[in-house]
Amino acid sequence: MHQSPPQKKPVVIKKPKKYVPKTYSATVYNGSLRKNIQRIISRSHWAQRIIWDVKDKDGNPMDFNWVGKTRVTSYTIQGVIGKILAQYPVQAVFYQG
């Protein structure tokens, strides 16, 4: 019996996978800025509570009205919140623990 020579298997070179960093996105709806921030944070399971300490010049609690609906994306949840709050005279302070 005649045996054929062994066939060489083709060499397959795989391209390295591109690293795609995870992004976070949130939809901001028309209405209360405070409620939007609370909803985004609670759905992300990132924080257990939010202290909303925004007061007018007389010390009364205040809120801002978000007009329209949009999607905000960033590489961190802090970045998403920062982009949302950038247009308002408020700041977010993130505490660990």
Structural notes for this entry:
- The chain is an alpha+beta fold.
- It has a domain at 24-85.
- It contains two helices and four strands, in the order E-E-H-E-E-H.
- The protein has helices at residues 33-44, 77-85; strands spanning 24-28, 31-32, 65-66, 70-74.
- The protein has a two-stranded antiparallel ribbon.
- The radius of gyration is 25 Å and the shape is rod-shaped.
- 8% of the residues are buried.
- The mean pLDDT is 85.
Relative helix content: 10-25%
Runs in which pLDDT lies below 50 for 5 or more consecutive residues are none
- What does the radius of gyration come to? 25 Å
State mean pLDDT (0 to 100 scale). Answer: 85
Helix/strand/pairing class, anyone? alpha+beta
Task: Tell me the series of helices and strands, N- to C-terminal.
Answer: EEHEEH
Overall outline: rod-shaped
* Main sheet overview: 2 strands, antiparallel
Cα-to-Cα separation, first versus last residue: 76 Å
* Strand proportion: 5-15%
- Count of helical stretches: 2
Give, in spatial order, the strands making up the sheet with the most strands. Answer: 1-4
Secondary structure: number of strands = 4
Brief digest:
With 97 residues, this protein is of the alpha+beta class.
